[in-house]
Amino acid sequence: MNTKVWKVDKYVDNLENNPQVVDAAHFLQENEVVALPTETVYGLGGNAESDVAVEKIYAAKGRPSDNPLIIHIGDKKQIHAFVREIPEKAELLMESFWPGPLTIIFKKKSGVLSHKATAGLDSVAVRMPDHPVALALLKKCQLPIAAPSANSSGKPSPTKAQHVIDDLDGKIAGVLDGGSTGVGVESTVLDCTEDIPVILRPGGVTKEQLEAVVGEVHLDAALIDEASKPKAPGMKYQHYAPNAPLYLVNGSKSFLQSLIEERQNEGLRVGVLATEETVEDYQSDVTISCGRRDKLESVATALYDTLRRFNQEKVDIIYSEMFPNTGVGHAIMNRLEKAAGNKIINE
Ligand code: AMP
Ligand code: MG
Description:
Layout: E1 4-7, H1 19-29, E2 34-36, E3 43-47, H2 51-61, E4 70-72, H3 88-97, E5 102-107, E6 123-127, H4 132-141, E7 145-146, H5 161-168, E8 174-177, E9 188-191, E10 198-201, H6 207-214, E11 218-219, H7 221-224, E12 246-250, H8 253-265, E13 270-274, E14 286-289, H9 296-312, E15 317-321, H10 328-339, E16 344-346
Parallel strand pairs: 1-8, 2-8, 4-6, 5-9, 10-11, 12-15, 12-16, 13-14, 13-15
Antiparallel strand pairs: 2-3, 3-7, 4-7, 5-6, 9-10
The structure holds adenosine monophosphate and magnesium ion (MG).
């Protein structure tokens, strides 16, 4: 399959009638799959009402079929077609954070969405992305769009159109290239089917921000204790992994430097994921700054691109600094732990 690339300037007016967006919307209506920029990462979109389109998403990504997809909408009103009830807290959260990086899980109305999109569950995950190109496309095609991240399953999520092409060229109908995404880590997944909302995946909206709107919010047990079974099926899989084994280092710079030297003495090419504040302090083969430690949003934005850059640098092993587990740092550490398969070295 020839994968089309449509370049779109997200700042132009009237995006809904932009010829590239119109063409991509047409593909979606024909049940083809198309990658689109969102404010978090690139998504791989397909008609959520169509088994055919949804199967194409799972096939292109190589995603396990028990891992349900997030349904993206361009207008809050669309939700009534496939959601059974909107609890009051969910309503408040939609008002505060949509469009934005918050996915809400509702009880599902049956018979509208492809059961494959929700992996047969009786709940459904929904979000309204805050990106002009995504919103224009969603409005134009007038469909609920199932869209997981547009990477091969297990790889770091794409934050640039080139990342999508690296993984999925020839496997999907097209990519809408709207430039780099902003937030850089995926949406927060929040289960609102019970009285007290539960975070199943930390992401772009922090626990603190959610609690400011609805009061008490819990964390899924699997986010606290590794041995618990996660409620979001996707959280049990290893994700985001670069090609080389990644280790998180819980210790000082001199400890990390001693690890680098041990590996170099064994003849390995060593990569280090550092920050602006520390990038000059390591003598390794490849040291990449992932952003400013005193501005964790910048680390989130650059995280997946940095992990992919280590693949291009062909390192044998990667050591990463760790980050505080609060605010957006919670999402950063969750992704790094998964990328590392939980390999942490303590000083
Ligand atoms: P991704 O599509 O890669 O951004 O991942 C979406 C995440 O949301 C995965 O971890 C899914 O398992 C989770 N998810 C989607 N739908 C549901 C649902 N109905 N209940 C629980 N988790 C869900
Ligand atoms: Mg993903």
